[in-house]
Amino acid sequence: MNTDLSSEIRKICREEGFFKTGFSKIEELKKESDYLNQWICEGRNADMNWISNTAGKRGNPRLIMDDAVSMISLAYLYDTPCEHKDDKPKISRYAWGKDYHKILKKKLKSACAKIEALEPGIKTRAYVDDGPVLEKSWAVKSGIGWQGKHTNIIEPEYGSFFFICEILVNKELDYDRPADDLCGSCSICASACPTGAIYEPYKLDANLCISYQTIENRNEIPSHINTDGWIFGCDICQDVCPYNKKKFFTEDNLFLPNPLHFNKSKEELSSFTEEQFNNIFSGTPVKRTKFTGWKRNLSKTINN
Ligand code: B12
Ligand code: SF4
Ligand code: SF4
């Protein structure tokens, strides 16, 4: 085991702002791959063909980096002390501020450069939601947290409002113990989900998920889906989780909501022209839905 290297890497990742770092040995994810393939076979991925097209790689990180030895899983908080008003159209917390892909990619790049400088021959490859990696499965293996029944990763102390990133590295490290599942007999998230998307504990049907419908779906939202006031993403199953009651906030102001769109009425948000939409949401996750998706989502909301 490489204790010195492991502690140096933990230090570097902490310096970059990640609140938790965990290590696991890279191997094929057999059980998780079977789950993933079954999920795809049942059509639970809706039209996210980019998942089915890369299912093989997702189950086996050596197909993306053949000399990868260890997975460094990282967690970065995004929740802020702001709260949205329940009677206004709601955007999910992760998308209130600037785009996490850009913010975290910069931090990962910096961390990788420092890690590669620790010893000759160290090679790294980093992802944040932008690679064919089962990020949640690795976060569990690396001891970051357990996969809750709503399918997100929960850190016992900090809750689940954090992003997951990872760095693959060609060195052996001091591996962490996988996290224990602390959901117990609770099932608050599944009961609170307004669409029944959590069809079994630990299993989510994207077709029914408001998050999928308002972010990823490029077509009409089916009439039987009640988006329940959400116009981009959905946080209901995490908002009700007892592990999110203690509040831990990000220190990164880039995730604070922009007052130009936060807690505005449906009328105000609907009045944005395409140019205003592009300006206000430039460099934010909301841009992903494009102006047509924005208008579609607003037209579905019951909130005013
Ligand atoms: C596709 C995707 C989505 C899809 C599908 C969600 C899903 N649950 O898979 C949609 C668009 C719906 C979505 C929504 C959201 N997403 Co998303 N998404 C992803 C993405 C790109 C892939 C996830 C994936 O592989 N899904 C495939 C399915 C099969 O995986 P799974 O649900 O984990 O399934 C596992 C379980 O079913 C398990 N299993 C099966 N049986 C059993 C039995 C037991 C006992 C157990 C324990 C497990 C188990 O095995 C499966 C395979 O591992 C990841 C990034 C990445 N590359 O990993 C981000 C990611 C999961 N999303 C993220 C976020 C933040 C969200 C939202 C909160 C955004 C929002 N506010 O709207 C919501 C949350 C919705 C929810 N309740 O999950 C974060 C989660 C961070 C965290 N703390 O966990 C990730 C990791 C992105 C990131 N880098 O931070 N997302
Ligand atoms: S994100 Fe919303 S719709 Fe999706 S599972 Fe959670 S509560 Fe249900
Ligand atoms: S609400 Fe309960 S069942 Fe759902 S993830 Fe949180 S602790 Fe687990």
SSE layout:
Layout: H1 3-15, E1 20-25, H2 30-41, H3 49-52, H4 55-59, E2 70-77, E3 90-91, H5 100-116, E4 124-127, H6 135-141, E5 146-147, E6 153-154, E7 162-169, H7 188-192, H8 210-216, E8 230-232, H9 236-239, H10 266-270, H11 274-280, H12 290-300
Parallel strand pairs: 3-8
Antiparallel strand pairs: 1-2, 2-7, 4-7, 5-6
Helix pairs in contact: 1-5
Give a short summary of the structure.
This protein is an alpha+beta fold and 304 residues long. It has 2 domains: 3-82 and 95-169, NADH Oxidase (3-Layer(aba) Sandwich), CATH 3.40.109; 188-300, no CATH class. The chain has helices at residues 3-15, 30-41, 49-52, 55-59, 100-116, 135-141, 188-192, 210-216, 236-239, 266-270, 274-280, 290-300, and strands at 20-25, 70-77, 90-91, 124-127, 146-147, 153-154, 162-169, 230-232.
Structure write-up:
By secondary structure, this protein is α+β, with helices and mostly antiparallel strands. Helix 1 (3-15) packs antiparallel against helix 5 (100-116). The longest helix is centred in the middle third of the chain and has 17 residues, at 100-116. It has two domains: 3-82 and 95-169, NADH Oxidase; 188-300, no CATH class. The chain has helices spanning 3-15, 30-41, 49-52, 55-59, 100-116, 135-141, 188-192, 210-216, 236-239, 266-270, 274-280, 290-300, and strands at residues 20-25, 70-77, 90-91, 124-127, 146-147, 153-154, 162-169, 230-232. The model has no long low-confidence stretch (mean pLDDT 96). It binds cobalamin and iron/sulfur cluster (2 copies). Residues 150, 193, 195, 197-198, 204, 209-211, 234, 236-237 line the site of one iron/sulfur cluster. One iron/sulfur cluster is lined by residues 150, 193, 195, 197-198, 204, 209-211, 234, 236-237.
